[in-house]
Amino acid sequence: MTPLRAIVARLGAALAGHRRDRDFDGELESHLALHIDDNVSGGMPPDEARRMALARLGGVNSVREAHREQRRFTVVDALVRDVRHGARLLRRHPLFAIVAVLSLGLGIGANAAVFTIANALMLRSLPVHEPERLALLSNDSWTYPILEELQRHRALVAGVAGWANDAVVVRVDGRGERDALQYVSGGFFEVLGANPRLGRTISIDDDRRGGGIDGPVAVISHAYWQRRFGGDAAILSRALTIDGVSFAVVGVMPEGFFGPEVGRAFDVAVPFGTEPLVRGGDSVLDRRSTWWLNVLFRLGPGQSIADAEQALRAVQPLVREATMPEHYRPQDRERYLSGLFTLEPASTGRSTLRTRYERPLGILAMAGVLVLLVTCANMANLLLARAHGMSTRLALGASRSRLIRQLLVEGLLLAGGGALAGLGLSWFSSRLIVGMISTADSPVHLEMGADWRVLAFTACVATVTALLFSVVPSMRATNVSPNDAIREQSRAVAGEGRLMATHALVVAQVALSLALLVVAGLLVRTFTTLSSQPLGLDPGRVLVADVSLGRDSVEPDARYAFYAQMRSAAAGLPGVDVAATSSFAPMSGAGWNTAVDTIDGRSLPGGDRERVAWLNAVSSDFFATYGTALRAGRAFAATDDLAAPPVAIVNDAFVLRYMNGEDPIGRLVKEGGPEGQARVVVGRVADARYFRDLRREPPPTLYVPQSQLPALGSSVVVSVRVRSGNPLELERALASALENAGQPVTVRVRPLEQSVRGALVQERLVATVGGFFGALALLIAGVGLYGVTAYSVSRRRAELGIRLTLGATPAGIVSLVFTRVAPCWSDSVWWWARRWPCGWRRSCGRCCTISSRPTPAPSRAPLRCWS
Amino acid sequence: MWQGTLALMILKTLDVMGDLHGYGIARRIEQTSGDQLVVNYGTIYPALLKLEQEGSISSAWGVSENGRKAKYYRLTRAGRRQLAAATQEWQDTTAIMSRFLAQERES
User: How far is Cα A820 from Cα A792, in angstroms, rounded to an integer?
Assistant: First the structure.
């Protein structure tokens, strides 16, 4: 330690500088001059006067040294001594140190974990060149014709690019897996500002219909290169196959690059021009009303978002006019033309997770802060109990500021240990949390390395924590005159300030933990309410198989027959009750909406968006498979074929919204613009969940028979209702039955339950973590209460002994102590009970779906402390 | 104890005399004690520095009555508070001590 101290001291002296030395020399000189003047005016000869003055000063060098010592002492030496003293104290009380560091680690770690996620999701810039020059065309998604038109005006900015997400089966060496595909425009990676690690990116020349000069090309992510190709160095000579089309791998992106979307990592990127190759007749590239891609801009150097926006709006009429969807009615056209282009900054990329997890993260952050406050109160109490030593030292003449500084250094040491523990904890827990919100349907990928923001945040939290828990109590502890301090050693004084402070802290701890527990209770309740609400479906016994046909392997008009064939193959499996096909499964995240035009020939008022109904094309037995109740009329039957009059089935919500709740059977519904057909409603079913989000009520839904659609898409969902048997075995049997139905298909089977679980991921996460925080806070508060009770009992030993001698029973003593402790609990409970019903629930009501009965407001004095 | 006492004396001197340089403070303390406290004048400087570091006094260069450049010390508001508190404490302690020492032997 000594060499270190010498270095530090020398450093301090260097910092203090020779200026201070010179200044003091000047002061000494002036001192001597004044003294000599005095001596001379008193009649001394100058020589004698000078000698006397020097003698009385006591040696210039030793005074200088003492002065320098005093200067250095307070600057660094004291700090070094405080740190050593603090470390020694902690070493001497290892249990205290461990408990303190652990509880601080939990408190700080909870906050650091939430911040790590928020940082990765919201704050971190994309790992690309000059991300601040990126902008997104805001609002909904866009059509490919619009992107093409915008690219014609690329001179207005530094670059225009687009991308769209898809999930497809990619075959590498014949082995197929479902991977995240991104269609990108030529030059997309240049606009984004990302350079490949190997090879090249997708150029404008690659983005031609049917592929460029090199044929269809693909760029893959670093993770995908490692996962599917084992990091093969000869990757640039390899290829992958999507739906029978071979793509040459021309580039690998660097590690840590996940694409333009935060939370969703791409595996393979291919040019838009190859989309017709992959999707064949289902290509949406030239469709003017299929909104499926995002548009990204790179602004010119020095160009502001507003500048670019203005330039875009100038060409907006041209772009809109050239891309007008053909079937729009006049009022739709007007709205289409007048929709303004708006840009939003995109330095942090785009993310659909942000809005979804903003509130849950906010709730978790709040809970984390509460846990930290409880920890602080607990630490403050522990330190207060040790204030004995303080008063002794105060009595011996230590200055108050010195003691406070020492306590603060000790607090910072503890908080520093806590911060380290917390960082380690947050590394695990943030990954655990992201693992919890990631599902098979929507995997979440976040880059969560500890960057400077996380480190700075943790350091700030630790410092504030240390300030909170050490300064306030140390002010209290040292705010005692030495006389009182000496007296305090001998006997306990009723009503001392310190005990008051201790109990206030315990009350605060208990109150905070109770608040957390109540919040946790509400979160759990939200979760159970959502998970137990009627779905209108019976997910427990349904298996869902997503089936994709090979490209153009079955002509669109022959698909229904093949789907029916697969359905009967599935229905014939042992253990299967009934089977059905549909365009997509409920709660899968997929959807199809339309505008209802007329009911019984009567036009509905309002624009497209006010006449929305959600569709699904289903086979017969669909409602039986999913367990959705038929309220009136009939289900679809085999007789509803192309020759028969078109029919439809509506749900309760549809009847309520568009038919005023009147009987729908036999009425005519027309939707889908000029090409749409009028359909006779033949049945009415109960509301069933449609969206993945359980908070969204079932929408007005229109079911149409697949048998009456002229052409079906190349993907279909086969669902079966399980009667008996092992579902896992049935999953495999179902997959192989469908694969052997006569055509090359890719199949993915999952229980419907999985979608329901996936829908509750967010609530389950918040409830779990919230509950954990609540329990944690309660544990810490319990430890604190125990400590304070034990401490006050030990201080009253003499008194209790006297009571026993005078005839008090042990039971009486226990109840005496207990009645003194009880108010700590009751005060906190009442304190919250009074405040809870109004404010908290209002602020929470927005984020939790809670039904609660009104609580009678109790009346009692708010806070009472005992001495 | 000497350190604390010297600090109190410095504070009191500045309180009574107003702004003063180190030499003046040392002389004043010596005179007030009736020349009973004879110490090296140099010891006053570390004490002054300590008080300044604690914020009880502040310093600035000035010119003395006979035209010498000198560093003047001034009592800050915190210093006044400290002086009041320390005076009270000192008086309490001496009162206790004198009562204590005034006890007669009980026969």
Answer: 10
Tell the residue number behind the tokens 């998604």, with chain if given: A141
Element (H, E) at A134: strand A134-137
CB atoms near residue A331 (< 10 Å): 11
Rounded Cα distance between A717 and A715, Å, is 7
Three-state secondary structure of A478-499 = HCCCHHHHHHHHHCCCCCCHHH
Residues with pLDDT less than 70, chain A:
1-18, 72-77, 139-140, 385-391, 394-399, 440-441, 472-473, 476-501, 550-552, 673-674, 725, 788, 791, 824-825, 831-867
Which contiguous run of DSSP H or E holds residue A364? helix A353-385
Q: What is the pLDDT of residue A862?
A: 33
d(CA B88, CA B94): 10
Question: Do residue B66 and residue A30 have CB atoms under 8 angstroms apart?
Answer: no
Q: Give the one of B40, B46, B71 whose C-beta lies nearest to A70's C-beta.
A: B46
- DSSP helix/strand/coil, A303: coil
Supply the pLDDT for residue A857.
35
- DSSP H or E stretch at residue A152: helix A144-152
Q: What are phi and psi of A587, to 5 degrees?
A: 60, 25
Which phi and psi (to 5°) does residue A177 adopt? -145, 155
> Exposed, middle or buried: residue A641 (CB in 10 Å: 0-12, 13-18, 19+)?
exposed
Mean pLDDT computed over B86-103: 89
- Nearest to A614, CA basis, from A584, A635, A644: A584
Burial degree of A638 (CB within 10 A; 0-12, 13-18, 19+): exposed
Contacting B with CB below 8 Å, chain A residues are 24, 26-28, 30-31, 33-35, 37-38, 56-60, 62-63, 66-67, 69-71, 74, 397, 399, 401, 481-483
Phi, psi at residue A723, to the nearest 5°?
A: -90, -45
Q: Give residue A858's pLDDT.
A: 34
Euclidean distance between CA atoms A545 and A739, whole angstroms: 11
Question: Hunting for tokens 């020059």 — which residue is that?
Answer: A133
How far apart are the C-alpha atoms of A758 and A755, rounded to whole Å? Answer: 5
Distance (Å) of CA A457 to CA A100, A181, A367, A412, A464: 20, 36, 17, 15, 11
Instruction: Pick from A20, A30, A483 the residue to mutate for testing the B interface (most B CBs within 10 Å).
Output: A30
Count Cβ atoms within 10 A of the Cβ of residue A42 and give its class: 0-12 exposed, 13-18 middle, 19 or more buried. Answer: exposed
Q: Which helix (H) or strand (E) holds A569?
A: helix A559-571
Give the per-residue pLDDT at A793.
77
CB-based contact B40 A57, cutoff 8 Å: yes
- Residues near A88 by Cβ (< 8 Å), separated by ≥ 6? none
- Report the pLDDT value the prediction gives residue A486, as an integer from 0 to 100: 55
DSSP state of A73: I
In this structure, the number of other CB atoms found within 10 A of the CB of residue A724 comes to: 11
Dihedral pair phi/psi, residue A599, rounded to 5° = -125, 125
Chain B interface residues facing chain A, Cβ-Cβ under 8 Å? 1, 4, 21-24, 27, 39-43, 45-46, 49-50, 53-54, 64, 66, 68-71, 89, 92-93
Q: How far apart are CA B11 and CA B18, in angstroms?
A: 10
Name every residue whose Cβ is closer than 8 Å to that of residue A350 and which is 6 or more positions away in sequence. Answer: A136, A260, A261, A262, A294
**CB A577, CB A723: distance < 8 Å:** yes
Residues A227-286: pLDDT tens digits? 999 999 999 999 999 888 899 999 999 998 988 988 888 999 999 999 998 887 778 888
The answer to whether A201 touches A219, Cβ cutoff 8 Å, is: yes
Tokens coding A153:
């005006």
Vertex A498 angle, CA A496 and A503, to 5°: 105
Alpha helices in A491-558 (DSSP H): 497-532
Residue in this structure with the two tokens 């190759």, named with its chain if needed: A277
